[in-house]
Amino acid sequence: MKQIYDTIVIGTGIAGLTAAIHLKEAGQNVIVLTKNDKVSECNTNYAQGGIIAYRPDDSAEALEKDILYAGCYYNNKQAVATLANEGPKLVFDFLINKIGIQFSTNDAGQLDYTEEAAHSQRRILHYQDHTGDKIESSLIAYAQKIGITILPGHTAIDLITNNHHSTDNQELYKPREVMGVYALNNATGEVVTFFASNVILATGGVGNLFQYTTNPASATGDGISMAYRAGADIINAEFVQFHPTALFHKDLKRFLISESLRGEGAKLLNHNGEQFMSKYSPLKELAPRDVVARAIYEEINTTGKEYVLLDLAHYYTGTKPIEERFYKIYHTCKEVGLDITKDPIPVVPAAHFFCGGIKVDNNGRASVRNLYAVGEVSCTGLHGANRLASDSLLEGMLWGKRAADDIIANGNHITGKRFDCIPDWRQPADSIEFDKLLIYQDWNAIKLTMWNYTGIVRTRTGLARASADLNYYYHRIIKFYKEAKLNRDIIELRNGIVTAQLIVSAAIHNDKSLGCHFIKD
Length: 521
Ligand code: SIN
Hints:
The protein is of the alpha/beta class. The chain has 3 domains: 2-238 and 355-419, FAD/NAD(P)-binding domain, CATH 3.50.50; 245-349, Succinate dehydrogenase/fumarate reductase flavoprotein, catalytic domain (Flavocytochrome C3, Chain A, domain 1, Alpha-Beta Complex); 436-485 and 487-509, Methane Monooxygenase Hydroxylase, Chain G, domain 1. Helices cover 37% and strands 16% of the residues. The strands form 4 sheets. Strands 1, 2, 6, 7, 8, 9 and 16 form a 7-stranded mixed β-sheet that branches. Helix 1 links the parallel strand 1 and strand 2 (30-33). The structure holds succinic acid.
């Protein structure tokens, strides 16, 4: 089955939906694909803290300074200046005035700006502590209102390029161009050929390549791996950010405990009841994330305990009751018997955000023609070696718009004849339906390797071991992929192993500790 669009967007988070909305409103024939059955299932939906927004007494220069400091000055200065100058106002123009999102207000009825680590200003708008699902549901409602087709349950397999797929041998001698995507209909097993003159990857991050993560299960590095196979440049892959505070609890898988708790006064304590952050940074609890994550790692290692404690109850500085300000965290913890208005919260670091990704320019263009990447899957260079809190939703929204604007102004138009030379997907007739346990075991091997050897603190020996082990898994998984009857699990596993190798390889090739790439020896 073949379908032709002006633009295909893969991914339904803030970056993908923002791009799709702008394209649709400019009259483009656009479709949004997601591998998930639920359209809202993406990292955006789980964002807690908030989004950096304009306030009159702040300045672009102050924001630039904070982003560069958190990023260890490894950032792309052009991307930083673009975000600082254009991003905060776009929150008002797009999210508030157009999409109609109402962020939380203070007792005086004014927008409530909160604080997170390494910000010199309270400049983050939030909706209680579940800003992401407010943004996500509002964007989906708006997209549906203006008639955007969003197709759930379709897992992208590979980008289609002229060089790789065309049966016209002359296409081999032309510059490489993306022409669409092969995607699996998860329910029927059919592979659909989606053609487009432009493809935007907005597939999110890599959290699930690690044993412990704050990300939903769908964050398996798909876009990175697909873009890499198509020949796009991937950069800064060694910079995986670990969030310092995920809940440590046997019944809950690393539920995020937002940095905004520390922004509203919460303190980190070790098992002797000591506040330890002053040993690690004069900014204490509000030091950049990489510093706090390493401090917790160190405390855990030296005390031999499995977690540290985050005490909000005794240090809260907010005016709203904790149950209201931190609604989601309060209720989620309550369900497992933890009352955050009274008890300190057991926390550990967990993989959270990928600062590297598909190298893109200031308009989201990747290094292969007709391919764009926006949001976490992309690397604009904004984050440098470590991301500043609450700028990822903003980056996704801004580059989603910039990519759409670029497509509207300069986008490609492929004629039907060239599409005619792209064959349908061929699935071998003798493919085998494998036991899920095989996939599960391979994932466990990848996740443990990444967590143990490519985690918060790395060693050269560990990275070399990771590289050798992943190389072995890669060959086994690719053989398995070729023999298996296609399904979402096997597609994700193939993407996961490729992305894991890219991260380890980048970590081995950068022998300087910087930001969230920390080598001990
Ligand atoms: C948080 O709420 O701590 C996460 C915010 C972010 O990742 O920027």
